[in-house]
Design goal:
alpha/beta, TIM Barrel, 2 domains
């Protein structure tokens, strides 16, 4: 299974061609927990200089978005390494901040006329409803009157169609095309064709203006949107195909973006921090030329870890029989084998998802805890399956104590179950009320669900009452599964898999008897 998961691909055109530099790439210098949302952030000259020296090897130009937080140092440092700059001026709802951004942008354009080749006045202002089209047009006219370089405005292509009057105040039109983020998401295999089709549509709509693709790309990690799957292979493929079309059809394109920006995960989920050609922390190129691209570059470590976990699961079953000899049924050993194989395959996937999808202490705690209980579940489950022990109910674990006391092993197993259900409930409710940036924990939930479902099927007491708590949680999971499955669509296999895990857990809870 891991050989299949990690199968690499060789692209006809590498995303980074050592023999041909990129036309331009979007650049923001923020690293780790630096964020443009905090006025306290000040990016150092050394940090920017290090980035630009690296980018100068792969591109001729960088596009920026603002002039504050130390970003006003970029034109000077770019000139030293031979990079051109499309200088951004960030506009929002604060007139005073806008005035500072504008004055700094104008000063930089005058100070570095050989480096700054255009000014981008505002970025997705209309998308975010930060001001009216007439106010934005007035600002653009004012800036144009004070500089000699071309002036443009950048927004999602659909908003250029809504506010066509803005074409009269810019020298050229800058559009953003993100197939992943479209209202009807476009799968990776059609992304380059979609970008080209939108470009030609915009060129015919605005025949008197050059149309520059100011942003386009694909995320390497994160949740699916319908059939649009973020992955390393898909990111490399989309970028490669877009660059190939740009070269063949001779149009300008700015890739989004140079470096992963992990701080965006807090705003946009995992995908928000996964658009870069370089990673955020080590500044390492994701796709070095000449090396095949794999979704799991550490697959040998992930495979070995999964095999070790499978051995541990069988070891737990064997030790249980050594301690309390009995003759388990063949079907119990089959259930142990299924649990061990499932966990062995999915452990590496779950670990990789935890690494990329965790941001901040709370997120690391949540996904780290889920990975721990997902790892412990099949180990405890193997012991329970061969010993014939039924899964503990919440009533037995947390309710009034009777004369019989539960063993330490059962209590630990019950703790794993409780923690797993609490975290699963948190994710399920999230997909109902706030699903846009939520990642699908399909791997870890499956590792949890399979052994408990096997216990409920094979070891459930023949008599007893159905506990109320389990019934309530079963209802929550069933409703969440139906809602998420319908809202995400049949093309989203991550969603369908997660919903299947919810349903399996719901059935397991419904079968509980105390």
């Amino acid at each position: 299974m891991w050989w299949w998961l990690a199968t690499p691909i060789n692209l006809v055109r590498a995303p980074i061609d050592p023999n041909a530099k990129l036309q331009c790439i979007a650049y923001a210098p923020f690293r780790a927990h630096q964020t443009s949302e905090s006025p306290a952030t000040q990016v150092s000259r050394e940090q920017i200089a290090e980035d630009l020296a690296q980018l100068a090897k792969i591109t001729d130009c960088v596009r920026t978005y603002a002039t504050d937080l130390g970003l006003d140092q970029i034109p000077e440092l770019a000139a030293k390494v031979g990079l051109k700059v499309i200088q951004g001026i960030w506009l929002g709802g604060d007139p005073q901040k806008n005035a500072t951004q504008i004055s700094t942008g104008i000063r930089l354009a005058r100070q570095y006329p050989g480096t700054i080749i255009a000014l981008g006045v505002g970025n997705e202002v209309m998308l975010h409803r930060a001001m009216t089209a007439s106010d934005l047009a007035a600002i653009i006219r004012s800036v144009k009157a004070q500089v000699t370089v071309p002036v443009t405005y950048s927004d999602v292509w659909e908003f250029w169609l809504r506010y066509r009057e803005l074409q009269d105040v810019v020298d050229f039109i800058t559009i953003h095309i993100h197939p992943y983020w479209e209202n009807d998401p476009v799968p990776a295999k059609f992304a380059a064709a979609h970008v080209d089709a939108i470009r030609m549509r915009m060129a015919s709509t605005f025949p008197g203006k050059e149309v520059l693709i100011g942003e386009t790309g694909w995320p390497s990690e994160g949740r699916m949107r319908r059939s649009a799957l973020p992955s390393r292979i898909n990111q490399a493929r989309v970028i490669s195909e877009i660059l190939d079309r740009a070269q063949r059809e001779n149009f300008r394109v700015i890739l989004f973006e140079a470096y992963d920006e992990s701080w965006k995960q807090e705003l946009e989920g995992t995908v928000g921090g996964s658009w870069g050609l370089f990673d955020s922390v080590q500044r390492m190129l994701k796709y070095p030329p000449g090396i095949p691209v794999s979704n799991y570059p550490l697959w040998k470590l992930q495979l070995s870890s999964g095999m070790a976990l499978a051995v541990l699961i069988f070891g737990a079953a064997w030790l249980t029989l050594r301690r309390k000899p009995r003759q388990p049924r063949l079907v119990s050993w089959l259930a142990v084998g299924i649990s061990a194989t499932t966990a062995g395959i999915l452990f590496g996937v779950a670990a990789q998802k935890m690494f990329y999808e965790s941001y901040g202490a709370g997120s690391w705690l949540l996904w780290g805890t889920l990975l721990v209980v997902a790892t412990a579940s099949p180990v405890f489950g193997a012991s329970a399956l061969v010993s014939g022990r039924a899964p503990p109910t919440f009533l037995e674990l947390l309710g009034p104590k009777d004369d019989q006391s539960l063993s330490l092993l059962t209590l630990l197993h019950g703790l794993v179950w409780i923690v797993a259900i609490v975290i699963t409930t948190q994710t399920a409710v999230g997909f109902v009320f706030d699903p846009r940036e939520k990642d699908f924990p399909f791997a870890a939930l499956t590792m949890v669900a399979v052994p408990f479902a096997a216990m409920a099927l094979l070891n459930r007491p023949k008599k007893g009452i159905r506990p109320m708590a389990e019934s309530i949680f079963a209802g929550v999971f069933l409703v969440a599964a139906i809602y998420a499955g319908l809202s995400e669509g049949a093309d989203n296999w991550q969603s369908l898999w997660t919903c299947a895990a919810y349903i399996l857990l719901a059935v397991t809870l419904w079968r509980a008897r105390a």
